[in-house]
Amino acid sequence: MAKMPTPSAVAATIGRVKRYTPDADTTELYRELGISHVAKKAREIVAKFPRPTEDQIQAVAEILRGADR
Q1: What pTM does this model have?
Q2: Does 2 map to a domain?
Q3: 1-52, pLDDT tens digit by residue?
Q4: Is 1 within the bounds of a domain?
Q5: 2 Cβ contact partners less than 8 Å away, ≥ 6 residues apart
Q6: How far is the C-alpha of 16 from the C-alpha of 40, rounded, in Å?
Q7: Burial of 55 from C-beta contacts in 10 A (0-12 / 13-18 / 19+)
Q8: Does residue 59 form part of some domain?
């Protein structure tokens, strides 16, 4: 599994891009920032509580895919 960058690292990248190329499309960077926050929180929760069931994991995956929009 690939290591997810920290939210602060992604935010720093966004800051650099906006500073040096203000017209750059930062959509992907903001997507990465959002998911890095989700990953960080998920790691914190998984460390504190029992492992979720496969159904619970699937339900969270569906949320991330946008199935509940």
Answers
A1: 0.80
A2: no
A3: 678 899 999 999 999 999 999 999 999 999 999 999 999 999 999 999 999 9
A4: no
A5: none
A6: 22
A7: exposed
A8: yes
